[in-house]
Amino acid sequence: MPAINEKVFISPARYVQGEGVTARAGHYVSALGKSALLIADDVVWKIAGEQLSESLKGSEVRFERVAFEGEASTREIERLADLGREHDADVVIGFGGGKAIDTAKGVAEQLNAACAVLPTTASTDAPTSALSVIYSDDGEFESYRFYDKNPNLVLVDTAIICKAPPRFLASGIADALATWVEARAAIRANANNMAGGKATLLGATIGEKCEEILFEHALLAYQANEAQIVTPSFEAVVEANTLLSGLGFESGGLAGAHAIHNGFTALHGEIHNLTHGEKVAYGTVAQLILDQTPQAELEEYLELYLALGLPITLKALKLDQASDDDLYRVAEAALKEGESSHNLAYELTPQQVVHAIKAVDVHARAFMEKVGLSE
Ligand SMILES: [Zn+2]
Hints:
Elements (H helix, E strand, L loop, with lengths): L13 E5 L6 H5 L5 E6 L1 H17 L3 E6 L6 H13 L4 E6 L1 H14 L2 E6 L11 E5 L5 E6 L6 E5 H4 L4 H23 L12 H26 L5 H21 L3 H9 L11 H15 L4 H13 L16 H11 L15 H22 L4
Parallel strand pairs: 1-8, 2-3, 2-4, 4-5, 5-8
Antiparallel strand pairs: 6-7
Bound molecules: zinc ion (ZN).
Catalytic activity: glycerol + NAD(+) = dihydroxyacetone + NADH + H(+)
EC number: 1.1.1.6
Pfam family, one: Fe-ADH
C-alpha cells in the first residue's frame, strides 16, 4: 500500500431535523430543482404523502410520485431513472427507508439531478452518504456504488420517525454503534475511509461522539419511540443514527462488522427477514471479539444490544440450524477482495471468522445467564 496520507472528509450540503419539518420540504427542495421525481413506497406514501405533497405544491415544485418496488438493485435504479427522464426531473426525492434512499441516490446520479433524502425511519445511516449499497433482485449484497457527491439535502422529520416501529430505531442504533467500533479499527490500521482517504480528526470525533450519545440515550429514545413521543433524547438518538453515524462511517471507515453483515446476506432462509442493523449488531460483536475486547467492555455492548431486543445469539439471528458450511460461506463472503474486513489491522482466515461468529453466541448466552435473562 502506498503511504499517501491524504485526509478526506465528505458530507451532505444541508441537514435539517425536527418535529414536523416535512412542512418545510418544499422550501428546501425548491432551492434544488423545480421538477421532482419522488420515490416512495406505497406504505410510506399512505402515512405521510399528503403532508409532503402539500409542502411541495406550496413551493411550486412539480413532482411525479413513483412507487419503489423494494430492492436497491441495478435494475430498479435503471427503471426509475427511465421514469425520471420521461418527466425531465432535475431533482430526485427519496422518501422512505434505507433501500428507497439508496435507490434514489443512484437514480439522481444517473439523471445528473440534485438529490433530496427524506428518511421515514432512523433505521440505517444511508441518508447522508455518497454511496449506495447495491443488492441483487433476491436481496444478496452485491457491491458499494460510490458517487461524486453526497445528497444535497437530508431532511429528517422526527414526528414521522417516532411513529415507526421501535424495531427500526433499534436497528439504526445497532448500525450507529458499529460506526465507532469500525472507524477506530480502520484508523488504527491506517486504512482508507469510504471517501477514499484517511480519516480527519473530525471524521474520527464524530464516530466517537456517536457512540457516547447512544450509550447515554439509546434506551430513553427507544422508550419514547414505544410511546410515539418526541423527547430530547429521542432527537439526539435520531441524529446519532442518521447524521453522526452517516458521517462517521463514511469519513471514518468500515471494517469487520459490515463485512460480516454482508457475509450474512449470502445465506438464504429466515435471516433475510432481519433488518440491516440487526445483522450489523451481530457482526459488531463478532468484530469486538476479534479485536480482543476485554470482558467488561464487551459486556457493556452486550447489555445494550439485549436491552434493545437486538439479535446477538445464533437463535435470535435465525441461524441456530446453520451448518458449519453455512458459516464458512458467510466467512468467505466477508473476506472477499475489496471487503471492508481488510481494513482491520490484522489478517483473518475464514476459520477465525467462523469462530468469532460462534463466540458471539457463546458470550451472549453466558452474559444472559449472568444477568438472569432467558433466551
Ligand atoms: Zn450500515
